Each structure stands twice: as structure tokens, then as C-alpha cells.
Amino acid sequence: MDLEIDDLVAGLCTRIGMLMEDASVDALTIGAISVDERKEALWRIDNAIRHMQTIVAAARALVGYAAGQLPAAEPSE
């Protein structure tokens, strides 16, 4: 991969890590909050997961583009 794509993929993965970190607070404190707060926390967790899925898809597309192929749905063994 060229350096620009490497940097883009690294940036996307960094963003995924940030989203995971933010979501982990909600996930780890879910038992200590009210039912209404749980609904909001679960929405935030779900939203973070959806964002991560989108970012992963973008990173896969960049990796596939750099390799001259479309990214596979699953890594090949």
C-alpha cells in the first residue's frame, strides 16, 4: 500500500479505537444506572457499533483498492 492509504487506514482504525473507548464506559456502567439511562446508553452503544462497521468497511475498501481488488467480506485463509 502507498503511504497515503496507510495513513488513511491508520486514521480510520484510530477512530474505531476512540469509539470503542467511549462505548466501553457505557457498557461497563450499564448495571449502575436507571432503566431510562440504560435505554440511552444502549442507543449510544448501538450507534457506536454502527459507526465502527461503516469505518471498517471504508478501511477494507481502501486496503482492497491498494491491492488492486475489491475487499472480501471475510479474510481469506
Properties at a glance:
0% strand, 77 residues, Methane Monooxygenase Hydroxylase, Chain G, domain 1, mainly alpha
Quick overview of this protein structure:
The protein has helices at 3-29, 35-66.
Can you tell me about this structure?
Helix 1 packs antiparallel against helix 2. The protein is elongated. The protein has helices at 3-29, 35-66. It has a single domain (3-66), classed as Methane Monooxygenase Hydroxylase, Chain G, domain 1 (Up-down Bundle), CATH 1.20.58. The chain has 77 residues and is mainly α.
Question: How many strand segments?
Answer: 0
Kindly provide the name of the CATH class: Mainly Alpha
What is the first-to-last residue Cα distance? 20 Å
SS element count, helices: 2
Runs with pLDDT <50, length 5+?
none
N-to-C order of helices and strands: HH
Q: Provide the β-strand percentage band.
A: under 5%
Shape: elongated
Predict the CATH topology: Methane Monooxygenase Hydroxylase, Chain G, domain 1
**Helical content class:** over 70%
Main sheet summary: none
Structural class by secondary-structure content? mainly alpha
Question: How many individual domains?
Answer: 1
Radius of gyration: 16 Å
Report mean pLDDT, rounded to a whole number: 90
CATH architecture: Up-down Bundle
